[in-house]
From TrEMBL:
Gene3D superfamilies named among the record's database cross-references: Ribonuclease Z/Hydroxyacylglutathione hydrolase-like
Protein name stated in the entry: MBL fold metallo-hydrolase
InterPro entries reported in the protein's UniProt record: MBL_superfamily_lactonases, Metallo-B-lactamas, RibonucZ/Hydroxyglut_hydro
Lineage: Bacteria, Bacillati, Actinomycetota, Actinomycetes, Streptosporangiales
Signal peptide region: none
Similarity-based family: Belongs to the metallo-beta-lactamase superfamily.
Length: 272
């Protein structure tokens, strides 16, 4: 995995015979009270290594475009204007900056139903953001999100209820816990695996050192914790990389064991 170009809102990596483009949708500030210990209680205090923006945790919001030059898949779509936060909804600028024509996006893979991942299917003006969209892959437990503003997309939804190949080099892997339909996408190239893992980790400066810490919005915290443990262990294998929606943009890194937890090594400097 090698960084080959970057800009204000994107970073492009060579990944064997694939290109992986990280797209920055922006960031959202969240209170530290959303963090939970193993008993579901609010953490008493944060380690000094966890930075705050004012009194809040600052979470990057990333999406990822993967292509072999012929076929492509966009993993997550950002928030559009659904979150009503001016720091988000930048994915369309990121796509333009990276030279990706939205009309060429036919397949979108959604990690889960929360607004900062699925809302970008609809542009701020209410139109479909991807005019030639053919399929939207999403965990079967999360398909209920396709109502209201997302209703026009419903006829192209492909529910994922078990491990399934969505193209020659990407496999959808159900990892319920954060939401019932939370799904990880395993992207394989000739040089390794990239796991686009959605909301497996929200606070990278904390949850790699302390992977048992969970998030208030994990629908099933024990299930989410177990999924995180299994994915972290998988990522320590040779030639495995992670693409995280809430890792610091551009959000692509490798994971190694470290003490009772794990260490995270980003493959590119922060953008944004």
């Amino acid at each position: 995995m090698r960084l080959i170009s970057s800009g204000q809102h994107h970073a492009t990596f060579e990944f064997g015979d694939l290109q992986v483009i990280s797209l920055r949708d922006g960031y959202i500030d969240m209170p530290p009270t959303r963090l939970r210990d193993e008993d579901g209680r609010t953490l008493d205090e944060l380690p000094a290594a966890v930075p705050l923006a004012g009194d809040n945790l600052r979470l990057s919001v990333n999406a990822f475009f993967v292509t072999d030059g012929t076929r492509s898949v966009l993993i997550d779509t950002g928030a559009s204007n659904a979150w009503h936060d001016p720091t988000m909804g930048l994915i369309y600028d990121a796509l333009d900056e990276a030279g990706i024509d939205r009309a060429h996006v036919t397949d979108v893979a959604i990690t889960h139903k929360h607004e900062d991942h699925v809302s970008g299917l609809i542009a701020p003006d209410g139109s479909e953001a991807f005019t030639n969209l053919e399929r939207v892959w999403i965990g079967a437990g999360d398909t209920s999100v396709f109502t209201g503003r997302l209703e026009p997309i419903r006829d192209r939804v492909v529910p994922v209820s078990e491990k399934v190949a969505i193209n020659d080099w990407t496999t959808a892997v159900p990892t319920p816990g954060h939401t019932p339909g939370h799904t990880v996408y395993d992207v394989r190239s000739g040089t390794g695996h990239l796991l686009a893992w959605g909301d497996t980790v929200h606070v990278p400066t904390l949850q790699f050192d302390h992977p048992n810490v969970s998030w208030e919005l994990d629908g099933n915290q024990s299930q989410a914790r177990a999924a995180r443990a299994a994915l972290l262990e998988q990522l320590t294998r040779p030639h495995h990389f992670v693409a995280g929606a809430h890792l610091d943009s551009p959000g692509i890194a490798r994971v190694t064991p470290s003490g009772d937890g794990y260490a995270l090594e980003y493959l590119a400097p922060p953008i944004g």
